[in-house]
Amino acid sequence: MTKRNRSAARTTAPSVIDARERAARALALRKDGLTFSEIAEALAYNSPQAAHDAVKRALDRVVREPALDLLALESERLDGLWKATYPAAKEGDTKAIAACLRIMERRAKLLGLDAPERVEAKVTARELPASVEEFV
Question: pLDDT higher for 1 or 16?
């Protein structure tokens, strides 16, 4: 028996598709200058806030999906470079080793694998009043 892909089922369920299409219409109406109250009335949302939330979700998808596509493309490119370089690195080729390290560094940056750098800030008692005055 095969396992069903629950994630795909959730994103292709008729109710999910209807909600996304409705949110896309809400985004188009907002782009045309309608208020959230007008959008809520036109698309039968329960409130202007519900219309706002739908527009925000649609906008998030518009931005997130191309970014995820680009991330996948860059990851595939790095995989190709790795496959071409790694055999020579394993044989001891120092240029290939350096290239592999650069590929690994780039992948770590791309995927956010490295821990953030810690920065220590110190303020002496003498500097404190001057620092506080800047914000008052």
Answer: 16
Q: By three-state DSSP, how is residue 35 classified?
A: coil
What is the C-alpha to C-alpha distance for residues 87 and 103, in angstroms, rounded to an integer?
14
For the chain, the residue count is 136
The residue ranking higher by pLDDT, 101 or 122, is 101
The answer, yes or no, to whether residue 39 has pLDDT greater than 50, is yes
Q: How far apart are CA 123 and CA 5, in angstroms?
A: 55
Reduced 3-state DSSP string for the chain? CCCCCHHHHHHHCHHHHHHHHHHHHHHHHHHCCCCHHHHHHHHCCCCHHHHHHHHHHHHHHHHHHHHHHHHHHHHHHHHHHHHHHHHHHHCCCHHHHHHHHHHHHHHHHHHCCCCCCCCCCCCCCCCHHHHHHHHC
SS3 91: coil
The pTM (predicted TM-score) of the whole model is: 0.49
Q: Which residue has the tokens 């055999």?
A: 87
